[in-house]
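In response to reviewer comment 3 from the previous cycle, which asked for concrete evidence that the modeling workflow produces usable outputs, we include below a single protein chain processed end to end. The sequence was submitted unchanged, and the resulting structure tokens are shown without manual editing.
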Amino acid sequence: MTRTGGTEEQKTDVKVSLIGGHRLKGETLHERTLTASLIGGADVDLTDIDIPDGAELRITKLSLIGGVSIRVRPEVRVEVHGIRLGGVKDDGPSGPGGPTVRVDAWGLLGGVSVTRG
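The workflow returned the following structure tokens.
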């Protein structure tokens, strides 16, 4: 994750495909990432980056069919927002504080699955 200072403009990564998902690794992402596809999910691995306490990393997923599979460290809090048919599977911390990953998932079919490790 590339962290910018308070006065600098935040960068947004954009990944687009018609058919097929995206595999994203943490060290190549900025504070905001948008991944869009007609059919296909997003597989995001954030286990090898250190998200500072109080920082928020935001991932937005747009698709008709396709969910989000995200891997984070055990102490990272994941907030899931958006509208989609499919649930959210996450058994991690839900209290305030600490590093946060916000997932905005918009689509018809596909859930959000969070794996910790």
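Residues 12-116 form one domain. We consider this sufficient to address the reviewer's concern, and the full set will be provided in the supplementary archive.
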